[in-house]
Amino acid sequence: MKKTYDLNVLERTSIITPDQLREEFPMTEKATQTVLDGRQDIKNILDGKDSRLLIITGPCSIISRRQALEYGQRLAGLQEKVKKNIRLVMRVYFEKPRTNVGFKGLISDPHIDRKSFDIDEGLRKARKILMDLNEMGVAAGTEILSQTAAERLSGLITWACIGARTTESQNHREWASAFSMPVGFKNGTDGNLDTAINALLAASSSQVFVGNDPFGVTSRVISRGNRYCHIVLRGGKRPNYDPVSIGEACDMLSRHPSLQKSVIVDCSHKNSGKDYHKQGEVFNHLLIQRVGHTNGVHIKPNRAICGMMLESNIEAGSQPFVYGETRKEDLNPFVSITDACIGWDETEALILAAHQQL
After folding, report:
1. Vertex 80, ends 74 and 81: CA angle to 5°?
2. Which of 241, 292, 236 is nearest to 265 (CA)?
3. Are 108 and 122 in contact (CB under 8 A)?
4. CA-CA-CA-CA torsion for 256, 258, 260, 261, nearest 10 degrees?
5. Domain contains 258
6. CATH number of the domain within which 326 lies
7. I need a surface site. Which of 43, 44, 132, 215 has the fewest CB within 10 A?
8. Whether pLDDT at 296 is above 90
């Protein structure tokens, strides 16, 4: 009989199961407390019980443990200076959605060579990085692209994001309904808010879906629903960080009493026109809206703006990178190979200035 399946599959190999990875890198008491405290702080911010501003900042993509720990150490020191007014979370992105083809992140290709795709090693590196950061007291936020990564790493994640390309995905909405951490859904790439609102309604409800148990066995999962799902504005055909756009988002959210009315705004992507130099400008515009004054000019403060996100690395910009041709050993680990980022000096200056304003 002729074969009717796997006609385009070249190879199948098993990967490390969730319980095996957790046994190899078990949670410590300090890391556990960092995650729990971070999640509760974000929930309180979303609920309006904590008046601090949430700032999620870090590299567009993690390309090495050295990079992640260097940024984490700097962020830990900055957190101590601003913790009265600002809650910092590090952006720790291991998975990258691609429009067509390209580097899909450290989990998929930890050697960044476009040939080995050692996913087991990628998962080990990712979990070790998250363990190290949480041991420092640095809370981690990441985008969830695959169920595989979510099942193996979610215990170390304080805040999760569903990206613009996947907000409409039923699978991602179902997973979010079961996640233990707050989850931000970005508006669609065209700027459409309806997609994100529908995602919030789905993810905040109980769902039944196909998932895996800790041993990697396919299972039926029944979720409670996640009431800490919220919207992340990232721009679309035009930026949407202005007061009118944020007001429109708040109006749409207010039509659904069960949804969080708090908004996080991404200062990068379409809100900055994909120009990393403009992230600081967007950040400062949002800060003015949040506090309601600048240089003696007063406007009505908008407390619906509960957080902002920055794409930030140790060094600014991006470096020349041709996937499959540029060798990992030739890369500067502190400069982005995906979206260009602001550097640490500008990041620190923006956050310290925000702390003073707040």
Report:
1. 95
2. 241
3. yes
4. 40
5. no
6. 3.20.20.70
7. 215
8. no
Whether residue 280 contacts residue 342, with contact meaning beta carbons closer than 8 Å, is answered with yes
Nearest to 107 by CA among 21, 6, 11, 214: 21
Q: Percentage of the chain surpassing pLDDT 90?
A: 95
Domain range enclosing 56:
18-164+265-357
| Residue 252, in any domain of the structure | no
Q: How far is CA 188 from CA 150, 157, 233, 325, in A?
A: 22, 24, 9, 32
Dist. CA 263–CA 245, nearest whole Å: 11
Give the pLDDT confidence score for residue 70 in this predicted structure.
98
Instruction: In whole angstroms, give the CA distance from residue 121 to residue 117.
Output: 9
**Do 185 and 200 contact (CB within 8 A), yes or no?**
yes
Instruction: State in Å, rounded, how far the first CA of the chain is from the last one.
Output: 71
Token readout for 273 is 């026109």
The two tokens of residue 341 are 């980022």
Q: What confidence tens digit (pLDDT) does each residue in 80-122 have?
A: 999 999 999 999 999 999 888 899 999 999 999 999 999 999 9
Helix (H, G, I), strand (E, B) or coil at 352: helix
In a domain, 176, yes or no: no
Name the token pair of 3. 């074969």
- Residue tagged 């957080």 (tokens): 307
Indicate the DSSP class of residue 36.
Answer: H
Cβ neighbors of 350 (< 8 A, separation 6 or more) are: 280, 283, 284, 310, 342
What 11-15 contacts at long range (C-beta under 8 Å, 24+ apart), as own/partner pairs, is 15/119, 15/120, 15/123, 15/148
Number of domains observed in the structure of the chain: 1
Q: What is the mean pLDDT of residues 193-211?
A: 97
Would you give the DSSP letter of residue 227? T
Tokens of 10: 């070249």
Q: Is residue 206 part of a domain?
A: no
pLDDT of residue 140: 98
Alpha helices (H) along the chain: 18-24, 29-47, 65-82, 119-135, 147-153, 170-178, 194-203, 243-254, 279-291, 344-357
